[in-house]
Amino acid sequence: MDVRHVFSLAVFGSYFLAIIVLFFLIISNLSSSSKTSSNGHLKPALFVVLTIGSLCHTWFYMFKYMEWSFNNYESSLRATVSHDFISRVGSWLWNTSLFEEAWATVCRHPMNWWWSEQLCLFTAGAWTIFIAVEGKRYNIKHLWAYMLLGQIVAISVAANLFYLACLLAQPPTLKADRRSAKAGPMLWLSVLLSLVTVAISPMTSQQTFLPNLLVMHALLFAPLLPRRATSTLSPKQGKTNEEAEEERFSIHVNYLYRFVQLASAAIHIRTALTTVKYLQQGSFGSNIAEAAWKVLHSHPAQSSIGWDVVWTSISFAVWIATRPAHSSQSSKPVTLSYLLLATPIASVGVTAPYVLQSKRNPSEIIDVKEE
């Protein structure tokens, strides 16, 4: 077998090995948290079901996409395929960029991008903030693992596991509540730049499409990576140099959610208008709902990411319905009604940051010093 094909098979195998390791890492932490959880069994079981459902559904189409890509590659070969199956798979993997091919498919036309953009806006905006803020608030370990799992498996799968982690964690202290109310520069800058990459995605060329996509994915890890420990400034302040500098440029998380909501709405409105023009000229007809359904099942890669959008939207609504009550939250019936009515039109990338905003005035948040 060609050494290049062996290398491709090794990389492909490493991809699935990474998925197994991430699941093991996250589930191990969940298992230790479940021993001290006071949230009963019904709510956690609900998110276990959602995790399994979203994983099976999205990856049914992911495997269908791999099958399609393999057959498409072999049909493009002029020479008769005579190698054994493993060699053929190695040849396919070496000569095909699955990541780029899949994303090019789901960004090809305005209607495709209308689906895919919803997931990008949610991930780059509300979900990154949510992981960073709630992860700190609930003291959840390995936040980066949830983001990586979302990027290489499905956002809905990782989101459900993170909701489960929040349910199983110990209730946050008042100090944790107040400290998590601020977004440091690493968080708001990463979110801002990620949204820029989402906004310019439809305008990229064949040469700039992949670099822009990679930057979009990479930026989201910056605020979730563990920080190295540094010495404190003084016993009085009880803060490291990095913490003091970060606090200086921090903003209230409500302001960040609000910005993300407005920016995501502007980006999605632009895409929706472009999509309407495309539908009027194309072969999908002028019925948006019918066209969206057709495009959703037009290609296995599109089905995978499209249903990931659906599962992500449903899971977020379930989280809002089951999350621990807090004085800063709006009425659940009102919030859920808003989500159910607005999300199909505006997308979860626009509705989530609005719902996640604290209803408490930012001026009520005060600094809490280390004891």
Total strand count, please? 2
Question: Beta fraction of the residues?
Answer: under 5%
| Uncertain residue segments | 365-371
Helix content: over 70%
Placed side by side, the strands forming the largest sheet appear as 1-2
Tell me the radius of gyration.
Answer: 22 Å
Q: Tell me, what's the shape?
A: globular
Output mean pLDDT: 87
Kindly, what is the distance between the CA atoms of the first and last residues, rounded to a whole number of angstroms?
Answer: 64 Å
Domain module count: 1
Largest sheet: 2 strands, antiparallel
Label the structural class. mainly alpha
Helix tally? Answer: 16
N-to-C order of helices and strands = HHHHHHHHEHHHEHHHHH
Pfam family, one: DUF2834
InterPro entries: DUF2834
Keywords: Membrane, Transmembrane, Transmembrane helix
